[in-house]
Design brief:
InterPro entries: DHFR-like_dom_sf, RibDG_C, Riboflavin_Biosynth_HTPR
Pathway: Cofactor biosynthesis; riboflavin biosynthesis
Keywords: NADP, Oxidoreductase
Oligomer: single chain
CATH superfamily: Dihydrofolate Reductase, subunit A
Bound molecules: NADP nicotinamide-adenine-dinucleotide phosphate
Strand content: 15-25%
Structural class: alpha/beta
Protein name: Riboflavin biosynthesis pyrimidine reductase
CATH topology: Dihydrofolate Reductase, subunit A
Helix content: 25-40%
Distance between the termini: 19 Å
GO molecular function, one term: 5-amino-6-(5-phosphoribosylamino)uracil reductase activity
Length: 252
């Protein structure tokens, strides 16, 4: 047991995350999940995440997208949060271009139903280069799929449901090597169950109460996945924890 003592100031909260080598994962792409939880593990308050997120967490959430080749998210989160395209500062875009990345990562939405509001900003406002992706399965309704194709680039990954492994392979085929998953809990749980979460950036917000929805909902029978703590920061009573799956990946 060790006590975590207050350490040196971090001049820029993004620096510890920018410094992570995400080329060393065991698969064709690296998956970073970024979530915020209350002290009781809740992932939402009245169906939204806003009340859980403190000011430094909100800022980190926006800026963390700088590390991503693509931002991956479940359809219910897009529906509830009214997602828009990723916005980054001019400097962040220039830094990405200097690293031979696109200025802005696209958003990829996972949906079987394709029951999405195509008037949402995430579909109407991205640049052509960051056109939103929709990842669905072969059994999706063909008429809805045709509509989806008019508003987004549609990828098919799996038969009756989106298979996380196939979805990540499809993203990697498009050149996306760093996948930032922003939830929600059910889609994140699918990635955890498939053992495809390489890194978890978890903010612990100093509050209790909220919806009976934990940060990750794994399908029944999924084995637990163990993580190792790699970084801790604190601001405004909010803990910023960075975990990675161990290299050997044995479940513990
Ligand atoms: N605390 C946080 O950091 C955080 C982050 C994100 C979201 N949230 C909160 O979490 C809640 C939403 O999360 P959620 O867990 O209910 O939903 P979610 O994971 O965002 O989305 C679930 C939906 O994604 C699609 N999906 C998931 N797995 C799929 C699969 N294998 N194949 C095909 N489609 C699949 C389905 O869409 P279709 O129904 O379209 O088929 C499913 O209904 C909201 O309250 C939001 O505010 C919190």
């Amino acid at each position: 047991m060790q006590r975590l003592e207050p350490g040196s100031d971090v001049p820029d909260a993004l620096i510890p995350y920018l410094g992570v080598d995400r080329t060393r994962g065991p698969h064709e792409c690296w998956v970073t999940a970024h979530m915020v939880a209350g002290l009781d593990g809740t992932a939402a308050v009245n169906g939204r995440v806003g009340a859980l997120s403190t000011a430094p967490d909100q800022e980190l959430f926006r800026r963390m997208r700088q590390i991503a080749d693509v931002v991956l998210v479940g359809a219910e989160t897009v529906r509830r949060e009214g997602y828009g395209p990723v916005r980054l500062t001019e400097q962040a875009q220039a830094d990405r271009v200097a690293q031979r990345r696109t200025p802005i990562p696209p958003v990829a939405v996972v949906s079987r139903s394709l029951d999405l509001d195509w008037g949402t900003k995430v579909f109407t406002e991205p640049t052509a280069e960051a056109r939103t992706l929709v990842i669905t399965c072969a059994s999706a309704d063909p008429e809805r799929r045709a509509v989806a194709e008019a508003h987004a680039t549609v990828l098919v990954a799996g038969e009756d449901r989106v298979d996380p492994v196939q979805a990540l392979a499809a993203l990697a085929d498009l050149g996306h090597r760093v996948v930032l998953c922003e939830g929600g809990p059910r889609w994140l749980g699918e990635l955890v169950a498939a053992d495809r979460v390489d890194e978890l950036c978890l903010s612990i917000s100093p509050m209790m109460g909220g919806d009976p929805l934990p940060v990750s909902v794994t399908p029944p029978g999924s084995p637990p996945a163990a993580f190792e703590l790699r970084d801790t920061m604190i601001e405004a009573n909010t803990l910023f924890l960075r975990y990675e799956r161990p290299g050997g990946r044995s479940n513990g």
